[in-house]
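hey m, so remember when u said the tokens were messed up on ur end? i reran from scratch. heres the input so u can diff it against urs
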Amino acid sequence: MSNQNNSFNSDRNLVDVFKELQQKRAEDSYMYQYGDSYNTPNKENGITTYFSSNKKTTNPYTYGKKLKNKKVMNSTKTFNYTKLSVGIIIITLIVSVALLFISYSFTTYGLEEEVAEAPEIVEFETNQKVLDIPQIISNNIDTATIKETLNEEREVNYPTKYQSVDNLPKGEEEVVQEGTNGKNKIVAVRTYENNELVDENIIESTTVKEPVEQIVNIGTSEFLAKYKVHLGDIMYVVANVDLKESPQTDSKDVVEIPATLDVKLLELSGEWCKISYDEKTGYVKATTLTSATAAPEMVDKARVQRILRDVKIDMPLNKKSGLAASDFKKILSNNPNDTNKIFENNYKAFFDVEQKYNINGVFLASLAIHESGWGTSQIASDKKNLFGYGSYDRDPYNSSYEFDDYKEGIELVAKVLVKNYLNTKDTKIYDNEKATATYYNGPTLEGVNTRYSTDSNWYKKVFNYMDTLYNKL
């Protein structure tokens, strides 16, 4: 029994077990017929034959049938083998099934009805990507496809045209024509799956309104880009330059433009620029111009230059000087003759009356300097009266007005000059009043001199102070 038990190796497969069972049944049948008198079995082509002393048997089942009526020999031994065969079958099946479930997944092996011709056992690799058949079926059942026809008007985006121009700074864009969208009437078929749009097929399109293209200029001018200016902007001449009639060196001169003065840029023409200056137009070389971006100091220089250019003895006095409050502070400060710093301390008063009454503040300051000797006269010191206002020749001191401060006297004299000396009759002046022109002889220094002072050279003396102050700019 021990040898038989050792033969039940767990590595054998089910086919091998059935083959052994077939072999055992053949031996039992032969013993049933012939007892122990048989020769050593011989295996040929997978079939075992047994040789007795009188015949060869190749089909043990046939002999089993023929001898069914014969007396059974060795019944005890045969019975034991039969029980053993059944036990072997049961144990082998249990072991084989257990090993198959533990070691790998398997599929059912088909066995032929005749055990002798059982097919070879085939191993199957475990499927790593199992198909989810229920989900596939569910997805196809749930998908609902719907088609619909659509008629509607749709906007058509306008095209954009870009074109290079030399009158814009390089790289800068300017829209010169706004674009507008057009409209098309379309007929389309839409396809939905589960209420989601998955396809649209336009089968007809009719133009309702043509789109208007947008036109965009792109600048190419390096000159404009360098100075960060555009046509129509203010530029400045860097030196005295002649304005030419045409963009040629030998062209006729129109006028000379002083250095630092401002001009208006009109056009570009190669190396020349067309500009306007004091209502005159012409051409200058591009190299003679600069901008506030490239030379910020030119702005103030141009302003001062224009002010100084207009400083003349016959300049109108019923106009503002053009000076800022800082300019008044500059020209009225640090004057050696202003020992009491009266004018330095009251620079703001002269600026304010210029803005309020439309009178040249530099003229008013120069008049005060001339009449008070830079504020050193007794009337100026005692009565805060810088102009000697109200004085008569027979008793100047006692007849003159007295003020609480210098500012009060400055404002009163400004109003008197504007109302009686500097404007024609009925000219609208301050506080909705009109000029009386009682002593009007022109808005110039010489005109004021006629009725204001008995000194015929008074206007020249006052202008000298004006010129000195202006030149401090």
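this time it looks ok to me. The chain is about 35% helix and 20% strand. if urs says something different then somethings off w ur setup not the seq
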